[in-house]
Every structure is written in C-alpha cells, then in structure tokens.
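ok trying this again, last paste got cut off
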Amino acid sequence: MSMKLLSAPIRAINAFGTLLIEQVIVAGQLTVLGCQIIKWMFKGKRNWKNIVVQLNEIGVNSIPVIAICSMFVGMVLVVQIGKQFASISAVAFIGGTVGLSLTRELAPLITAVVIAGRNGSAMTAELGTMKVTEQIDALIALSVNPVSYLIIPRVIACAIMLPMLTIFSNIIGLVGGVAVAISQVGISSSVYFNSVVDNVTVTDFISGIIKSAIFGVIIGVVAAHKGLSCEGGAEGVGKATTGSVVMMITLLLIINYFLSSLFFTYQQGMG
C-alpha cells in the first residue's frame, strides 16, 4: 500500500522532469536557429523577391482582420470604462486611458496574436510540408542554405510588418473608441483626442513598436523551428502547425510581461 502511495508522486516528478528536459531542448534548438539566422542575415544574399512576397502576405493581406480586431478592442475598452469614468466626472481621461492601453499593450499584443494565428501557422505548415516531402533536402543538395533562402525572408517580413500593423492597429482602435465614446458616453471627439494627446507620450508609442518588432522575430523563429523539425507526413504537419501557434502565443505572453516590466522601469527612471 505504501509503495502505491509513493508511486503517484514519483510518476508526477518523472513527468515534470521529462517536460522540463523537453522544454530545455526546445529552448536550445530555438537558440541555435536564432544564431544561424543572425549569421546568414549578414553572410548570405538577400532573396528580395521572397521578402516582397512575405511582406505582402503578412502585411497587406492581414489588414482587414487587424482592422476588425483593433476596432472592436477600442470599442470594448470604452464600453468598459466609459460609464464608470462618467459617473466620477472623469470623461476627460477616457481617450488617454484607451490610448495608453492600445499603444503600450493591446495593439502590439493583439496584432502579434493575430499574425501568429494567421501567418505563423501558415509558415509552419508550408515549411513542414517542404520538410516531409524532402524539398528542404533538395535545396541542401543544390548547395542552397534553407535558413538563408526560406527562413530569413519570413523573419525579416515579420519584423518589418508587425510594427507597421501595430501603428495601424493603434489608429483603428482609437477610431473605434471615439465612435463609442460619442454615441454612448456623450463626449465630443475633441475631448477624446485631446485626452489622447495629453496622456500618451512618444515613449509609450515607441515601446509598443519595439515590442511588436520583437514579437515579429519570435513568430518567424518559432514558425521556422516547428516547420524544419516537422516529421511524420501530413499528421506531423498538422501537429507542428498546432504546436507552433501554442508556442508562439505562450512566448508572446511571457515575453510581453518582461518587456512591459522593462519599459515601465525605464519610464519610472525617466520620470
């Protein structure tokens, strides 16, 4: 009986240890891939045609879904805080609160999550299909480095387009917020946008842009890692795609916390 009681904790410890080892291995693989990307970023030739294709796919084609998500995020923010602020005669702070929420946190994070689900999964599936059908091996046989030819254009496109989409998200979110502020709270657009200008600083705006660029690199590296490590045919591609989205969103949330803490500490020091 005592052995049975002891076996459950042992199994739990064993499972935890196995999971921890797996995560350490994955972290090591991501680090190695990141070093290879940095190496070939400066060493290899740029595939500009592929970069332009990825810029269009990640940036231009994502505008509609980013616009819808951002608009409703801004509208929901005003719905949540509008009446409460009005009840304490603080409607002059509604625009600033929405602006700070969007520029610091919501716009870069929502944009990154949408791109992770829309484009990150597609990149993983594309690279994974190339891996299981031995197209990656064919490139290597032709002396073409897959990191330089396939991965770097995607990472560059993510790092460039996410900040641009974040700026667009900020604008659309503020527009959605002012529409609800006028129709439901009863304040004017001038009061709303004056509050934004008074409360949102350049540092707040830049911190969100820096975040989004880092998020773009994370999405590109994770998608590449999951795609290149894919195996097992069509089933393996499906599992890799699902796993990449889960890993991307998890890393985005974790790294967002540390970046937010870093920027907040910096702003406090500047203040």
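PB: full thing came through this time. The chain has two domains: 1-43, 45-270.
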